[in-house]
């Protein structure tokens, strides 16, 4: 199977070869040889995939949105085209999967059935869908979609579909099944759970150098996670083992032709040596044409044509300045992809309410103090904005670095109660101190101040420090934040403006690399931080009193630094499940809105944020454990992710632009117009006529 897709760096090609479970070694070898020939003809650029029946990669499965049907038969069946309007068929299909559907032709017998899966009895003019008593709605819906696909594409729309959800309620359809399968004797088997790799297993990435020495294959481990791009040497071939879940072979551009041609055989040898199952996925990739799946396993990935310019990033650590790009907020609703990229739902002109968690309850914060957050506290910030003539809500849960566990827990509990007050419509955003999202900065209009410790409670017994130092970053009201840093000279940075508040004066220290806009924003913040006289000083012109307040001179960051970015990272969508006690995620490749099912909890990872989408019919256990699942996802990510990454809870039907913008052609009316499983089932019409059809 050959697939071209357009990316930001040109055309990417995927080349898949598929191995049936009953194919011979000679056939498998011939297929691998043919792939090498095709790879040569295409200039060595395709990403090559080895797919084994029943264990196909998520990329391969994404091409068949209505599911894959495995047919019985020998080699010739693979070359036979689908014949439409042929009705002399009698087969039983075992349908499995929720996001990725597969249907395997099994023995026409009750012995093939179990309680947890969907089975499709295909009799040509009649398709009977039998749903096991333990099936969920998603599995039933996917089974029905497959039945309709067979009816419409293979039978020209002339076959009838009947559904058995409860055998007692469908005596006529059960009669047909008994005529074909005979009387059922004994109890149905329990479903066999899918053996899927959990996230802990996938996180166990190891990089190996592979070479031959004296006709022996030598595999030398060189690194474990987090992996860095510089480990890949252009003159070598490497194997990356993702916990036995998938094997990647990376072929350096300067490696020999023999090394490149033996990539698959070396991967197979590696699988055998490790004792992994023969069905393990293999992906062969070329230096300079790496797949997104491969690149996301590394801590950082830089494309060779990328330039890294000066600019400004909002954290207190000493990293790159990343240039501020101004954008027109009026375009946000017309261009949702811009809203997603800029992480802004609107122009931040909505209504803001702030509460502090005190004695485990919500206490309103004085509006004059809005924007001032103390590291010893937790806060709830409710933002209300209008869209399409009705209010929408974002509920930020800000967690101070020094807040107690009880306060953090109380913050989450109070957030749930506040959400209920607004009809469970709020988008919930967990904000870790120092990781405030762009929109959070914007709603405080340039006056967001983060105090390292302490509390905003009036009756605190701890006196405030007499000397405080704040690092101010931002060029306008939409992106400015002041963060308290240790009051010593080593905290300074030539790229920024700092406020040094003492009992006599407030210094505005302007580094050589700061701009006029940054100085103006610092003046606005200075009026909030200190009531003392303001004194602006330039780097290199400091009075002796300035250094005395900081405890003396000391070296500090003074060079311009380059931007650290994860431009390789593409948004990824996953179905989450942790009901079995193991955290399992199924990726949806090439995702769209249709992949968000009502009974799902889905995770959208855009690197800067992690969104949790909660379907309205989702399982209560998975819904309640959603935040824990997101934290587990970050913790087990192979790239060694920042555990303070914002986690945003989004409910079906109340998706903000920063979420919908990642989806192509989002339909806001889908949830009201889309058909449920029961509606699709009823649309099949009267099935009583099915029993009149003679079974041959």
TrEMBL record:
It is found in: Cytoplasm, Cytoskeleton. GO terms for cellular component: actin cytoskeleton; cytoplasm. Pfam families: Gelsolin. SMART domains: GEL. GO terms for molecular function: actin filament binding; phosphatidylinositol-4,5-bisphosphate binding. Belongs to the villin/gelsolin family. It comes from Tinamus guttatus (White-throated tinamou). It comes from the Eukaryota. GO terms for biological process: actin filament severing; actin polymerization or depolymerization; barbed-end actin filament capping. The lineage of its organism: Eukaryota, Metazoa, Chordata, Craniata, Vertebrata. InterPro entries: ADF-H/Gelsolin-like_dom_sf (IPR029006), Gelsolin-like_dom (IPR007123), Gelsolin-like_dom_sf (IPR036180), Villin/Gelsolin (IPR007122). Keywords: Actin capping, Actin-binding, Calcium, Cytoplasm, Cytoskeleton, Repeat. Residues 14-60, 101-173, 223-295, 364-441, 480-547, 583-659 form the Gelsolin-like domain. This is Villin-1.
């Amino acid at each position: 199977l050959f697939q071209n897709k357009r990316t930001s760096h040109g055309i990417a090609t995927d080349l898949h070869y598929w191995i049936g479970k009953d194919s011979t070694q000679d056939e498998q070898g011939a297929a691998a040889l043919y792939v090498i020939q095709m790879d040569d003809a295409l200039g060595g650029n395709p990403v090559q995939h080895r797919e084994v029946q029943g264990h196909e990669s998520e990329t391969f499965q994404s091409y068949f949105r209505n599911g894959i049907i495995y047919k019985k038969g020998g080699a010739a069946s693979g070359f036979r085209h689908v014949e439409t309007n042929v009705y002399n068929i009698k087969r039983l299909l075992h349908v499995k999967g929720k996001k990725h559907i597969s249907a395997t032709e099994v023995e026409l017998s009750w012995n093939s059935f179990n309680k947890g899966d969907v089975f499709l009895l295909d009799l040509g003019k009649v398709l009977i869908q039998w749903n096991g008593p333990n099936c969920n709605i998603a599995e039933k819906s996917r089974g029905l979609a497959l039945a309709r696909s067979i009816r419409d594409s293979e039978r020209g729309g002339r076959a009838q579909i009947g559904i058995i959800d409860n055998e007692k309620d469908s005596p006529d359809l059960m009669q047909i099944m008994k005529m074909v399968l005979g009387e059922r004797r004994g109890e149905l088997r329990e479903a066999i759970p899918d053996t899927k790799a959990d996230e802990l297993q996938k996180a166990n990435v190891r990089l190996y150098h592979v070479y031959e020495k004296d006709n022996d294959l030598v595999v030398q481990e060189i690194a474990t996670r987090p992996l860095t791009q510089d480990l890949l040497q252009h003159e070598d071939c490497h194997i990356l083992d993702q916990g036995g879940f998938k094997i990647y072979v990376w072929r350096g551009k300067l490696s020999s032709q023999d090394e490149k041609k033996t990539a698959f055989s070396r991967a197979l040898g590696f699988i055998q040596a490790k004792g992994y199952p023969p069905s393990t996925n293999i992906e062969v990739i070329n230096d300079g044409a790496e797949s997104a799946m491969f690149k996301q396993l590394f801590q950082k990935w830089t494309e060779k044509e990328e330039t890294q310019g000066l600019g400004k990033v909002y954290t207190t650590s000493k990293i790159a300045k990343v240039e501020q790009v101004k954008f027109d907020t009026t375009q946000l609703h017309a261009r949702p992809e811009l809203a997603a990229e800029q992480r802004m739902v609107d122009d931040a002109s909505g209504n803001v309410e702030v509460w502090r968690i005190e004695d485990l309850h919500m206490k309103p914060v004085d509006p004059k103090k809005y924007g001032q957050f103390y590291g010893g506290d937790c806060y709830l910030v409710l933002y209300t904005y209008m869209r399409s003539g009705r209010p929408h809500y974002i509920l930020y849960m800000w967690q101070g670095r020094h807040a107690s566990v009880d306060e953090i827990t109380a913050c989450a509990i109070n957030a749930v109660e506040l959400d209920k007050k607004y009809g469970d419509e709020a988008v919930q955003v967990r904000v870790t101190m120092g990781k405030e999202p762009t929109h959070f900065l914007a709603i405080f209009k340039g006056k967001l101040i983060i105090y390292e410790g302490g509390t905003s409670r009036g009756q605190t017994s701890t006196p405030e420090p007499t000397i405080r130092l704040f690092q101010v970053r931002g060029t306008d009201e939409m992106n400015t934040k002041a963060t308290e840093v240790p009051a010593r000279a080593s905290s300074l940075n030539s790229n920024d403006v700092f406020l040094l508040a003492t009992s006599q004066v407030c210094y505005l220290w302007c580094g050589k690399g700061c701009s006029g806009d940054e100085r103006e924003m610092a003046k606005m913040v200075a009026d909030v931080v200190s009531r003392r006289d303001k004194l602006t000083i330039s780097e290199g012109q400091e009075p002796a009193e300035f250094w005395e307040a900081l405890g003396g001179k000391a070296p500090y960051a003074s060079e311009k630094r380059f931007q650290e970015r994860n431009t390789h990272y593409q948004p990824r969508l996953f179905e989450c499940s942790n009901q079995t006690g193991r955290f399992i995620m199924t990726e949806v490749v090439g995702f769209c809105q249709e992949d968000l099912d009502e009974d799902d909890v889905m995770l959208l990872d855009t690197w800067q944020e992690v969104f949790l989408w909660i379907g309205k019919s989702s399982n209560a256990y998975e819904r309640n454990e959603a935040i824990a699942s997101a934290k587990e996802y970050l913790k087990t990510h192979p790239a060694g992710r920042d555990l303070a990454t914002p986690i945003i809870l989004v409910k079906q039907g109340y998706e903000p632009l920063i979420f919908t913008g990642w989806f192509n052609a989002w339909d806001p009316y889908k949830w009201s117009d889309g058909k449920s499983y029961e509606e699709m089932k009823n649309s099949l019409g009267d099935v009583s006529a099915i029993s009149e059809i003679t079974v041959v």
